[in-house]
Specification:
single chain; mainly alpha; Alpha-lytic protease prodomain-like; Alpha-Beta Plaits; 3-stranded mixed sheet; 3 strands
Length: 293
């Protein structure tokens, strides 16, 4: 995230320079989005630092959800930046201005775009390694910036070839709309995390397959509950076994299940609740997950 912040500072300088040289509102919109990248990177650094703190007396389940504060802040900043871009573009539509020094301006913009693409690649690798929504969100935001910058460069190139200066603010508005879509997607993912959404479908299916492979006439599972908090996954379930089993037998089964699930789904915390399979009350909540939704 510090690398992302440093790259944001560099791209702000480069894109602002390109805007000052050309007078392009499209390049101005690109520079403003890089400003959002900087604030988002600093917010993400704070969130990841907080999320890494261990559980304490006031936060028994840790601080993993701190990552959602970062992604939520980023989604709001993205939309604010997009509205500012639209405002600037409307002013340019009303009073079109010729663009200057397009060659050097576009070259500088392309250099900043290449820097963003490199940092996004590094962040995606880190996000996959650490299973972090914050790193993944920032990487996808930077990739959006890359495509946005590419669109701006292509558009300004068309302005240079055709002489139609009105294309510049129109491109800026198109960029802003694309940024709003990105912000909305990020906000939706943040809200889902804060509402304790269950595991993604593919991970849920993998978990259910694993449990189905362990079931026998003497061993059953139900009341399966899952949720995601930042980079962590949480799984809770009831394990039904014969009542005559010893405590040690039941304990060994639950320990093995927890290890198998943690191996199949890294960064997963698993809780099991042992119950006698013959007791009718053990089956009262067998359909919990389906009844809830």
């Amino acid at each position: 995230m510090l690398l992302s912040a440093a790259a944001a500072v560099a791209t702000i300088v480069l894109k602002t320079w390109a805007w000052r040289l050309t007078g392009s509102v499209g390049l101005l919109s690109d520079a403003m989005e890089s400003g959002v990248n900087l604030v988002a990177a600093l917010g993400a650094f704070w969130a990841l630092t907080l999320a890494a703190k261990p559980a304490d007396r006031r936060h028994h389940y840790g601080h993993f959800k701190a990552e959602y504060f970062s992604s939520g802040l980023e989604s709001v900043l993205i939309v604010v930046a997009a509205l500012a871009i639209i405002h600037a573009a409307i002013g340019r539509l009303q009073e079109p201005q010729p663009l200057e020094q397009l060659g050097i301006g576009l070259a500088i913009s392309l250099l900043a775009t290449a820097l963003n693409a490199l940092v996004a690649w590094v962040l995606l690798k880190a996000a996959k390694r650490f299973h972090s929504i914050t790193l993944r969100a920032d990487a996808h935001h930077l990739l959006t910036d890359v495509w946005t910058s590419t669109g701006v460069v292509v558009g300004i190139g068309l302005v240079k070839l055709s002489g139609w200066t009105i294309l510049d603010p129109l491109i800026a508005i198109a960029v802003a709309i694309n940024i709003i879509v990105t912000g909305w997607k990020l906000f939706h993912e943040t809200a889902s995390g804060l509402l304790d959404r269950s595991l993604p479908d593919e991970e849920q299916h993998l978990l259910e397959q694993l449990l189905a492979s362990r079931e026998t006439e003497q061993i059953r599972f139900h009341a399966l509950r899952t949720r995601v908090a930042g980079s962590k996954r949480f799984v809770a379930m009831h394990v039904l076994v014969p009542g005559q089993w010893s405590v040690q037998q039941g304990h060994d089964l639950c320990e093995q299940l927890e290890q198998d699930i943690a191996t199949a789904l890294p960064r997963t915390h698993v809780w099991t609740h042992l119950e006698p399979i013959e007791d009718p009350t053990s089956w009262n909540d067998q359909n919990f997950r389906w009844e809830q939704g």
